Amino acid sequence: MSHSPFDPDESLTDAQKRRDRAGAPRPEVEDTRGEPSPGYRAHPAARIFVRGPWEMAASILIGLGVVMMMQPWIMLAFTWSFLVTLTGTVMFLIVSHFPE
User: Which of 54, 75, 83, 100 has the fewest Cβ atoms nearer than 10 Å?
Assistant: First the structure.
């Protein structure tokens, strides 16, 4: 039997190949996209800290800061533009680690 260049068994060490030939059970892969087990309750914060809306808010803050920086009419907006852009950027970095 010939092995293809992408055969996963080619990447095994000799000890792993011996264990595989000895009939050791292979690990079972479970579907993690299914329904949660009965009795599972999500933490209430899990509903609030969802990535999508927070990323959108951070992106809007970044865009608002850039617009504030580029406009030539209101000095107060220009003064606060860097802080608004920085806040949006740091917020985006943090919320990009939130669950989907």
Answer: 100
